[in-house]
Amino acid sequence: MLASLLFLAPLALASPLYKRQSNTYPEPLQRGPPPRQPWIDTYNAAKAAGKIPSFAPARLNSDGVPFYSGGVATDDKGVCSWSQAHCFGDNDIYDAPDGMYAINFDDGPVPASIPLYNFLEKENQTGTHFLIGTNVVDYPDAFKKVLDIGGHVAVHTWSHPYMTTMDDMQVLGELGWTAQAIFDHSNGIVPAFWRPPYGDADARVRAIAEEVFGLKLVGWNRDSNDWCLNDNPGSACAAYGLSGASDLEAELRGWQTGAKSPGCIGLEHETGSLIVNAFISTYPGIKQHGWDARCVPDLFNLDWYQNGKNNDGPFDTSFVIGSGPDSNSTSSASSATSSASSSASTASVSSSGSARASSSATVSSAGVAVPSKDAQASTDKDSGASALSRSSLAGSVAVVGLVAVAALA
Ligand SMILES: [Zn+2]
């Protein structure tokens, strides 16, 4: 037994497909985790080339909504904030083509995702899954499952923050570590799409996602508010018109019978049985009403990943996470100055330490603070963080340690 393990270990390490770029992940749901140096190098090159705008991060007001101080314009003449002005970036995806219906879910992979994955497999239905990096590391079996059923995977950040409140280094860490976790736990997938939690993005965040990680932003044009029922069974979701599963199913059926121009990209989550069952029970209506249902990239005939057309691979593993959208080598950005990165890095550490909970306090801050903010915020918020936080945090520290050890073996 021991001999066979010793024999297998070098083989696993030798394969470039399974070569991990990192053996140590940030703490579960760590806000704005410090980025890896290669991502900083690419960021510095993009910054020096004028591709990343410079303005101060937003802050959350007492209602939990990001705001910018100093009279900054929030529309397309200013920071182009979706949260404040529903401003879209040039490359953002919000609408599906006419007659098309995106199958997509946020906040997985978690154990509650498995029945959804089994259903999609049975229906031979592709979907896009915007994944929490922490969950990819915590639930490697669920992540393997979503790939096995032919699911398209994309980035939904490491800790589910309001991304416009992160400084540049924190944005790098949130996106980079999620892409890294997907890369490490697959055969080397480099994601091509991301969805900001709560839809919260601005020109700075979009530019970092695009210029450093090659990630295209995907928003939505329908919002089920299913996260509320997932967190609060009973009458707490009346403000969203949801008193129970039947209301959620009615909402989803409304999408199906609604206008087909533009097509539908609806916000749904995969974090609990009630909301997963609502999707499953209403799914036949999508076909009955003549929609062409696909995962997000298939709506536009785009490749699923930056280094592969779909899950079949093989993936170009010379493509390094954070080397920019058009690069498949490691050296293009390495000559960039490091002065900006070192100062920004320091700021990121202090900012995350003061504004956000340390790892020991993350459970309460992520699990308690987020729902109350979301309840007061716009109905367009992607608010699955609360469900994810409570369901995934228990034991996650131990799992992270186990995954790291397993990868070395
Ligand atoms: Zn989410």
UniProtKB/TrEMBL annotation:
Major location (coarse): membrane
> Which Gene Ontology molecular-function terms are recorded?
chitin deacetylase activity
Q: Where is this region: Disordered?
A: 316-387
How this chain sits in the membrane, per its record, is: Lipid-anchor; GPI-anchor
The cofactors it requires, by name, are: Co(2+)
- Name the domain of life this protein comes from: Eukaryota
Q: EC number(s)?
A: 3.5.1.41
- Which SUPFAM superfamilies does this chain map to? Glycoside hydrolase/deacetylase
GO BP field? chitin catabolic process; fungal-type cell wall biogenesis; polysaccharide catabolic process
Catalytic reactions of this protein: [(1->4)-N-acetyl-beta-D-glucosaminyl](n) + n H2O = chitosan + n acetate
Q: Where is the composition biased (Low complexity)?
A: 322-372
Report the InterPro entries cross-referenced here: Glyco_hydro/deAcase_b/a-brl (IPR011330), NODB_dom (IPR002509), Polysacc_deacetylase_ArnD (IPR050248)
A GO-annotated cellular component: plasma membrane
- Any one Pfam family here would be Polysacc_deac_1
Could you tell me which residue ranges the NodB homology domain spans?
Answer: 99-294
Q: Which UniProt keywords apply?
A: Carbohydrate metabolism, Chitin degradation, Cobalt, Glycoprotein, GPI-anchor, Lipoprotein, Membrane, Polysaccharide degradation
Q: Where in the cell is it found?
A: Cell membrane
Q: What is this protein called?
A: chitin deacetylase
